[in-house]
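Example with several molecule types.
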Amino acid sequence: MFRALADESRRALLDSLAAQSAQTLSELCSGLSMTRQAVSKHLAILEEANLVATVKRGREKLHYLNPVPIAEIANRWIRKFERTRVDALVDLKKRLESE
Amino acid sequence: MFRALADESRRALLDSLAAQSAQTLSELCSGLSMTRQAVSKHLAILEEANLVATVKRGREKLHYLNPVPIAEIANRWIRKFERTRVDALVDLKKRLESE
DNA sequence: TTGACAGGCAACCGTTTGGTTGCATATTAG
DNA sequence: CTAATATGCAACCAAACGGTTGCCTGTCAA
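Resulting structure tokens for the full complex:
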């Protein structure tokens, strides 16, 4: 998931889906200076990372943003590293004093 | 910053620093099956992304985790996409019904 | 039925990435 | 002083990445 978020184009796609849900591939392409195939690849990566869900309807494929995993991971990481905020400063002080 | 978090080795380094603050490069290397130089590169990337802060002491370089940017970005992204949770479902329903 | 439209698949390509080896520099211990 | 230790710097390499072009498939409309 981190890898999926690491690319600016993909973040732009997520932004676009956040602004306007249920877009087709072609819709998502318009405005971006990129080939349809490139966008398609990005969407595949986002889909694999479970950040985008799709529904096929006829010859179209509607794309939906799935904000849940972002929220989950974000919360986990915040909590994981929040604890260290004070600890780190204490450690720093201790180490410097032990010189 | 997303790019910095996109690599498993770097996330492992952050984990290590979360568990034990103020580690030297050599300390961070032990346990990982990687060259010291590789770890050094990863740390440079983390440092550039402001996820790790360093203090030089003698010939050693102590590494500290900086959890603040993670928390900031995470919060921004949660808020950004939280709004769409309900909207997305509504849109989906609407689009499917309009068939 | 046939043409136009939406999308999928695959090969190819330059650049970036993650990693290595080898050597140089700086600091501390004996 | 000298040797060992801790780190930095640079060149190099295979693999992955982001993107392209070209072609194929499936669906809708006239």
